[in-house]
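Session log. Operator J.P. requested a structure for one protein chain; no other inputs attached. Running the standard single-chain path with token output.
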Amino acid sequence: MIRRINDIVAKHIQGNLITYFFVILFFMTGISSGAFMSKALTDFQNKELIVYLKNFFSIVDSKAINNLAILKQSLLNNFQTGIIIWILGVTVIGIPLILLIIGLRGFIIGFTVGFFVKQMGFKGVIFSLVSILPQNILIVPCTVFIGVLGISFSLMLIKNKTRKNTRYSIVNQFFLYSTIIAMIHIIIVVGCLIEAYISPFFIKYISTYM
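Structure written below.
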């Protein structure tokens, strides 16, 4: 069973190498842009974010973390992204918007990590590893995968638009497309659980040293 899944995934990647290249390129460009933007902040913006960061550490250190609230927010954010990409995938104009969303996700990560490292140096690296990396080990690949599926489905619609008698095939492909994305969201849920219940534990522990 696992071998069969591996074969399916390998064939999918091989058949969509160019799409994966562009999606990952946009994601990495977003990370680079976010990291650069964190260094381009004005002194006022830096001071505002530093104050916010200090308040965050003091709150984390003194109060119990509301894991359920974090889980709800994480599920909302990631499900919104997945659903928007799914919707854009069934349009013929969704490809650039999907790439933009992927780039924006990269930008947020790059800006956050860049700011932590800029303000806290090596401590910022450690904090990024415990607060951002654990959940994104699952969430980022899933988001990239969903982005590739959305673009692939959109390209399929464009190709079939000039063909006749493809309605039945498109309906089948749509159900397959939707089912796979729904299954990927199960993995995203695991990432959200990590963000809500595991990362906060490390953040609370490490905040005492910040």
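Operator note: The mean pLDDT is 85.
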